[in-house]
């Protein structure tokens, strides 16, 4: 009898988010599903880990009707992946890790801040093929029809053939109907950034505090970027690297900084 693929599902919006429920439904036909997700929203946590407080892991019956083993964790999205591998799987590596479906974009520079993508990245670091999924809709009652279709398309491909080491995809899905959806497009990350402002306010005791607001600025006019693909109704598929070495600057430094002993 052929062994079922083992699929780890996680997210950063928390165990009760609609996105993770839709992600579970999309991957159920492809293997044995185990869910480990934060017990509360952890958006914007990036690759944070808990080192100064204990972590709690609790088994839930949240998705028992689908025969899905489910846990909530008191830590960050990355903590969830670490605990899943070391405690639940006892070192056994899943065949795939999927993270999401996030409410809101993780395209372009957002990949740096995203707890959704950091959870997927943590699994990829450990040699597990991983995909982070995000839908460009912050509405709690968002329509995940297109997202489930995208998940099915990619998961079936990834599980169907050997993947390169540290395989990691950042997948963003436009807010469109299935009829308007134009398909998947392999892209590069757009060169963009956030410009932040801090709104200064006072609490009832007269102490100042700050509320961060920002504006997304896309400096990239290329037609092959994730931002452009999403604007035109495609789901963007961006391969993400774990090695942050910038080869161009490394070569520049080797040629210019010759004074080191």
Radius of gyration, taken over Cα atoms and rounded to an integer in Å:
20 Å
Summarize model confidence as the mean pLDDT: 94
Widest beta sheet: strand line-up: 3-4-2-1-5-6-7-11-8
**Gross morphology:** globular
The number of E-state strands comes to 11
Distance between the termini: 61 Å
What series of H and E elements makes up the topology?
EHEEEHEHHEHEEEEHEH
| Low-pLDDT sequence parts | none
Give the count of helical stretches: 7
Proportion of beta-strand residues: 25-35%
Largest sheet: 9 strands, mixed
Structural class by secondary-structure content: alpha/beta
- In helices, the fraction of residues equals 25-40%
Walk me through this protein's architecture:
Helix 1 (18-27) packs across helix 5 (145-160) and helix 2 packs parallel to helix 4 (115-125). The longest helix is centred in the middle third of the chain and has 16 residues, at 145-160. The chain is 26% helix and 27% strand. The strands form two sheets. A nine-stranded mixed β-sheet has the order 3-4-2-1-5-6-7-11-8, sandwiched between helices. It has a two-stranded antiparallel sheet with strand order 9-10. It has seven helices and eleven strands. A hairpin with a 5-residue loop joins strand 9 and strand 10 (208-218). The model has no long low-confidence stretch (mean pLDDT 94). The termini are far apart. It has helices at 18-27, 77-88, 110-113, 115-125, 145-160, 226-231, 247-256, and strands at residues 6-10, 32-38, 57-60, 69-73, 96-103, 130-135, 168-173, 184-186, 192-202, 208-218, 235-239. By secondary structure, it is α/β, with parallel strands linked by helices.
């Amino acid at each position: 009898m052929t062994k079922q693929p083992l699929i780890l599902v996680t997210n950063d919006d928390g165990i009760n988010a609609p996105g993770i429920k839709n992600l579970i439904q999309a991957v159920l036909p492809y293997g044995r599903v185990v869910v480990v997700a934060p017990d509360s929203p952890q958006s914007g946590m990036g690759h944070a880990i808990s080192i100064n407080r204990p972590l709690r892991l609790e088994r839930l019956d949240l998705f028992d009707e689908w025969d899905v083993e489910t846990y909530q964790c008191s830590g960050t999205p990355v903590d969830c992946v670490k605990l899943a591998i070391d405690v639940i799987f006892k070192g056994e590596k899943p065949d795939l890790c999927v993270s999401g479906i996030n409410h809101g974009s993780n395209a372009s520079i957002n990949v740096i801040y995203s707890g959704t993508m950091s959870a997927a990245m943590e699994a990829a670091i450990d040699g597990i093929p991983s995909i982070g999924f995000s839908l460009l809709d912050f509405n709690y009652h968002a329509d995940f029809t297109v997202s489930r279709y995208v998940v099915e398309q990619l998961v079936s491909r990834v599980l169907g053939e050997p993947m390169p080491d540290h395989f990691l995809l950042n997948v963003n899905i436009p807010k469109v109907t299935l009829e308007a959806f134009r398909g998947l497009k392999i892209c590069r990350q757009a060169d963009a950034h956030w410009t932040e402002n801090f709104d200064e306010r006072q609490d009832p005791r007269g102490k100042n505090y700050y509320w961060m607001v920002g504006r997304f600025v896309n400096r990239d006019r290329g037609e092959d970027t994730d931002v452009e693909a999403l604007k035109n109704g495609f789901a963007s598929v961006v391969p993400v690297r774990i090695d942050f070495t910038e080869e161009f600057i490394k070569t520049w430094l080797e040629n210019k900084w010759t004074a080191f002993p």
